[in-house]
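Hello,

I think I submitted the adenosine-5'-diphosphate job twice by accident. Can you confirm which output corresponds to this input? Input:
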Amino acid sequence: MEINISKKWKNVLTKVSSSMSAVSFDLWLKPLEIIDIKDSALILAAPSSVSKNQIMKNFKDALLDAISSEFDYIADFEIFSPDEKEEYLKYNKPFEEEDLSKVNNKQSYDNFNVKYTFDNFVVGKSNQFVYTACRAVAENPATRFNPLFIYGGVGLGKTHLLHAIGNYIKNNSKDKKIVYVTCENFINDYVYALKFNSTNDTIITNFRDKYRNVDVLMIDDIQFISEKKALQEEFFHTFNDLYQKNKQIIISSDRPPREISALEERLKSRFNSGLIQDIQKPDLETRIAILEKKASIEKYTINKEAIQFIAERIDTNIREMEGFLSKVIFYSSLLGKNSATLEDAQEALKNYLETNKESLSTDRIIKVVCDYFNVTKDDLIGKRKNKEIATARQICIYLITEMMDLPLTAIGEVFGGRDHTTIIHSRDKIEELTKTKSSISVAVNDLKAMLKD
Ligand code: ADP
Ligand code: MG
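Support: Only one job matched these inputs. Its output is below.
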């Protein structure tokens, strides 16, 4: 099998060599060898720890730039010293070009989270239609609602329902082949397949087999497909192929198809040909029922007033509500109690519920962002253009504009006297990326959650 990693590696070296002296290049970069590709990172080995350290200290950014421009699928690298290499190879087979087809196949699965079942899903006004549709599809795939497109805000139960369908089918019709994939993995898989397709046809064939040779295909968080034209094209054909063979397609999204930016018309119309069903925010009664259910599944005891207290305070994101439940339980268990009371809930959540704009400061946001991305404050507010730092900086600016009421010029001041147009640019850019790039949207959500704590 001829996937030309070695050739790509040569290109990487040529690229890096242009940014350093010939002596440094020969001394440090040239001796590197590839030993593996793991979790979208290239694993390299250096002939000594001195050379490893030199590279990490002086050429890390240049090398990473060259690697990521040459290998689309690869976003990071690691260098091992001889000792580390030896250790690594004790537990891992050294890389062979043939292994690549396996890498391509590893990302989807049908081992569903056993907690995400229909029985554990609380049905109320906000989700009864979507529940009924999912249940119908699980009981009789590809008969009524095909495709089934479900959408709703973060933490309202979409992934839970997809897993519930998966669990149900797995338990009731063992011969059915189900593939569940997050849109992000679908994208990675595809980019990877394309990248190596020019040298190896079987990779794209593997990719197609994997997604077309199934009875049920589920894609979670499809909104990340927006703007990715080639992928939409591929997905369109996958879709048609499955549909013609009368196979079930289930899709989730945080918004309806018409609001997914740059989604091709023909895909929209495919989605519209099935059932599109939304999940609303749960009402108080449903929220209480959900908390009771979670508590009973985890065998927690918590009294009714405490549950009511939590449910009244969070009305959008159920995941967040569960987080509060755990905090309360944890708190009361520290006190050695076997049942959480209203007072425990009030005390445990005291610091989390009082957040308002005043308690935030730019310093606090900057600190949290620095910790999250592991960069220094000087770098964050300084001028370095390294990609990771620049992204952290833009995210920080975005969070400040979103979470605080500060004039743009004042924010510019905080960031070393930057112009307000720079602030606007950063804000808009991140706003856009949260819609198209899941790594950014995950980071922004994480950070917001931390800042609310
Ligand atoms: P989404 O995919 O829409 O962001 P998830 O499916 O990940 O949301 O749900 C977030 C959490 O909330 C999960 O732990 C899930 O079990 C729980 N959850 C959401 N809706 C319900 C429900 N109706 N009944 C029970 N648990 C729910
Ligand atoms: Mg989800």
